[in-house]
UniProtKB/TrEMBL annotation:
Organism per entry: Armillaria gallica (Bulbous honey fungus)
SUPFAM superfamilies in alphabetical order: Clavaminate synthase-like
PANTHER family registered for this protein in UniProt: PHYTANOYL-COA DIOXYGENASE DOMAIN CONTAINING 1, PHYTANOYL-COA DIOXYGENASE DOMAIN-CONTAINING PROTEIN 1
One of the record's GO molecular function terms: dioxygenase activity
Coiled-coil residues: none
Protein name: Phytanoyl-CoA dioxygenase
Length: 301
């Protein structure tokens, strides 16, 4: 018997590759996360920032220590269009940050509570039966600032959070209303079943990051088909995202922010292998935290 999801929801997740769960967080919980995110923006020290820009585009070089060593810290990544050619912000700092990450789930008590100390999250893991013993490996608040909030191009998360075999699942929670104008997520339903993971995001031997091609079985890959579905959300809605489903979000052209909190989990050994090429590396002091108190029992039919 499912603990939190209905059987229909579990089936929809596996059929579409994502699932919207309205009202996952109560409005006071959502409000508290939003307020905490804004506090981080107020605390942002522009002078100490290396002006790192984050983009998931293939050609942009994002490899610097600030980014690569952010797994167990709370760091700030800027909107590309908030920085002028001299590296100065062209607007107030609270309107310049694209996202903060990647260790909120470990370091901040409020985000930790929603992520690692949340019985509903554990129940979803049990219900999906996707992971035996998942670990949470990163978390972010994505702000998508008014008028300049950068688009996130078509991608799947297992490219960026690669394990062998692929095992990433994203939990994405709207902290504000997400509309067609402020960059709501959209998905290509079913693409997780047809689009193989063909590349992975790695630390390059010469420094920085880049993409490495993966061997692909041509028979098992068919070009993605169908139409993207835009999923508007209310504050507190959760979207579960299968690591192989293609998704994206458009530029925020509106006058409103679009705050969302997201964290990802992956399977741990011996069920999946995480290796040293991955851009995000655990440290000895901060290994990836286990999500469940006891591993999930997954019976093989
Ligand atoms: O929040 C967004 O706009 C993009 C999020 C996303 O693509 C992800 O979490 O994988």
């Amino acid at each position: 018997m499912p603990e939190f999801l209905t059987q229909e929801q579990v089936e929809k997740f596996y059929s579409d590759g994502y699932l919207v769960i309205p009202g996952f967080l109560a409005s006071d919980e959502t409000g508290a996360l939003l307020a905490r995110s804004k506090k981080y923006l107020d605390a942002f020290s522009v002078e100490d920032h290396p002006m790192t820009k984050f983009t998931t585009g293939d050609h942009d070089h994002v490899g610097d220590d600030y980014f690569l060593n952010s797994g167990d810290k709370i760091r700030y990544f800027l909107e590309e269009d908030a920085v002028d050619k001299d590296g100065k912000l062209n607007r107030d700092k609270t309107r310049a940050v694209n996202k903060i990450g990647h260790g909120l789930h470990e370091l901040d008590p409020l985000f930790r509570k929603v992520t690692l100390e949340n019985d509903k999250v554990k129940a979803i893991v049990h219900d999906l039966k996707y992971h035996h013993d998942p670990v949470a490996l990163q978390s972010m608040v994505i702000m998508k600032q008014p008028e300049i909030g950068g688009e996130v191009g078509e991608h799947n998360d297992s490219t960026f959070l690669y394990t062998n075999p692929p095992s990433a699942v994203g939990f994405w929670i709207a902290l504000e209303k997400c509309t067609p104008h402020n960059g709501a997520l959209s998905f290509l339903p079913g693409s997780h079943r047809t689009a193989s993971i063909i590349k992975r995001f790695v630390r390059l031997p010469q420094g920085g990051t880049g993409f490495e091609a993966l061997p692909v079985n041509a028979d098992s890959t068919t070009p993605p088909q169908g139409e993207y579905v835009l999923e508007t959300c209310e504050p507190g809605d959760l979207v579960l995202i299968h690591g192989s489903v293609l998704h994206k979000s458009e530029r925020n052209t509106s006058l409103n922010t679009r705050f969302a909190y997201t964290f990802h989990m992956i399977e741990s050994p011996p069920y999946a292998e995480y290796d040293s090429k991955n851009w995000l590396q655990p440290t000895e002091a901060t290994p990836f935290p286990h999500v469940l108190d006891k591993p999930n029992v997954i019976s093989v039919a």
